[in-house]
Amino acid sequence: MDRLVTEPNFFIVGAPKSATTNISYYLMQHPDIFMPDNFEPYYFARLDVPENFEREMIYDEKKYLDLFKKSKNSKAIGESSPVYLYCPNSAEDIKRSFPESKIIISLRNPIEIAYSQYFSLKFMDFNDNLNFNELLDLNQKQISKREFNINSLLEAGFYSKHIKRFQKFFAEDQIKIVIFEEYIKNSTKTINSILDFLNIEEKIEFKNVPKNSFRVPRNSLTSSILNNSMLRKASRKFIPSLTRSKIGDSLFKT
Q1: What is the pTM of this model?
Q2: DSSP symbol at 3
Q3: By C-alpha distance, which of 94, 72, 100, 91 is closest to 198?
Q4: Does 19 share its domain with 57?
């Protein structure tokens, strides 16, 4: 008989802009899988960012574990925080807390990640009004000085370094790598392979989830809403990430 769990036993750790949210949407449809509404808590990034970090994230262990309280009769419980891939302390911290966990890593062309990350930071007012090349230069200088910046356009793309870090703490059969371009071509095949990886035997008919790698506002009204920095900051503070993402989906063309 499969053992039911009440704490996370799998983590989607990145890379950013590599369909991690999309994958989460599919997995959350399965009755044997639980992911909280706030499925990007960033808890295991807390050792690498200041406490005044502008993004919604959880620092307290009890609050983090409370996210998973509603998991009942679940074989797999997880969360999806893409920054874990490249945060220097995340792999070891996850291993220390949940040593038997499964790790899912989605990889994408690093150049596309950098562009997508730039526009995301611009939208969220996190780029200090620097253009793409200026931000690249800044991030390159930070890397050369070994200064970690969670919003770096470049850091996430050093896959070899980051994967080796996870391989140091987790066995080969605990790590699954997904290739974004393959996922986009056949999402169902990849999702079913993830179910196998998580030891979920039952396959279900999934509802299609929009793939919004590049999105534009539906009209001038939604554009003005999306460009309102006060509304964006308030939403990050008070609205769970799943709800916020669904609201965002409704504001964009797909």
Answers
A1: 0.81
A2: P
A3: 100
A4: yes
